[in-house]
Design a protein that fits this description.
Number of helices: 9
Strand content: 15-25%
Order of helices and strands: HEHEHEHEEEHEEEHEEEHHH
Structural class: alpha+beta
Oligomer: single chain
Helix content: 40-55%
CATH superfamily of the largest domain: Ribosomal protein L10, N-terminal RNA-binding domain
Radius of gyration: 34 Å
CATH topology of the largest domain: Alpha-Beta Plaits
Strand order of the largest sheet: 2-3-1-11-12
Number of strands: 12
Length: 287
């Protein structure tokens, strides 16, 4: 007879598993798991099998295990995970490419109906067209101020209607209407909220950056640094070429105006200006 594990045994086993994962993996995706069913989660586990492991659990237990493991190993980098363990979240430990893992997780979103009291994650728009409902169902549309007409014995929606806005709670009338129309407006899955990589924590939007984006941002930063250095006359490396050119322009302007001072490069400019003088006088005469 197999002995059933007690709560204490389960906690010990969970702690050991989490600590082992922290030792084996240096990359973690923190994911929100709201409205994700067990079957859906199992499919995600199967899709990630190979170089990633999903671990769910109570936040208090995860925080405790992370904190104790950090104290035991002396690795304080793990503590960066603790502030991220808020709400219904889970951890995906991975050795794969973070962007590819996130994209794989996103494939397993499933459609869901609009249940009463649920906060809408997106805008819900009812499209125009024939609903297939008989005229006795027009009361639903009237309550929600949806313009309709009767066409061939069925209710037809005339124009697109924004039924629910993102962030609003779904009402009973909206839920009943969407159910009658067979519309499942929402989709749910694991959503990456934060990324942990070797002690660093950053927003998942960083994973979308390309090399060109990084080059553009670096160039923008250098440009701002150069502008600041020039404004305060500080000889930063990025501003040095501009400072030299500006200084050269000042010296050149002085040499051109001065009679008894010159240098080789200034002589070339003076000669060019002297050659242009007749044309300048002719243009003034023509005007």
């Amino acid at each position: 007879m197999v002995r059933k594990l007690s709560k204490a045994d389960k906690k010990i086993a969970y702690d050991a598993k989490l600590c082992q994962l922290l030792d084996d993996f240096s990359q973690v995706l923190v994911v929100a798991a709201d409205n994700v069913g067990s079957n859906q989660l199992q499919n995600i586990r199967s899709g990630l099998r190979g170089d990633s492991v999903i671990l769910m659990g109570k936040n208090t237990m995860m925080k405790r295990s992370v904190r104790m493991h950090s104290e035991k190993t002396g690795n304080e980098a793990y503590l960066s995970l603790i502030p991220l363990l808020v709400g219904n979240v889970g951890l995906i430990f991975t050795k794969g490419d973070l962007k590819e893992v996130r994209e794989e997780v996103a494939k397993y979103k499933v459609g869901a109906p609009a249940r009463v009291g649920l906060v809408a994650p997106v805008d819900v728009v009812v499209p125009p067209g024939n609903t297939g409902l008989d005229p006795s169902q027009t009361s639903f549309f009237q309550v929600l101020n949806i313009p309709t007409k009767i066409n061939k014995g069925t209710v037809e929606i005339i124009t697109p209607v924004e039924l629910i806005q993102k962030g609003d709670k779904v009402g009973s009338s909206e839920a009943a209407l969407l159910a009658k129309l067979g519309i499942r407006p929402f989709s749910y899955g694991l959503v990456v909220t934060s990324v942990y990589d070797n002690g660093s924590v950053f927003d998942p939007m960083v994973l979308d950056l390309t090399e060109d984006d990084l080059v553009d941002k670096f160039a923008s930063g250098v440009s701002e640094l150069t502008s600041l250095a020039l404004a305060v006359h500080y000889p930063a490396i990025a501003a040095a070429p501009h400072m030299l050119i500006n200084s050269y322009k000042n010296v050149l302007a002085l040499a051109v105006e001065a009679i008894f001072y010159s240098f080789p490069l200034a002589e070339k400019v003076k000669k060019y200006l002297d050659d242009q003088e007749p044309d300048v006088h002719m243009a003034m005469y023509d005007d």
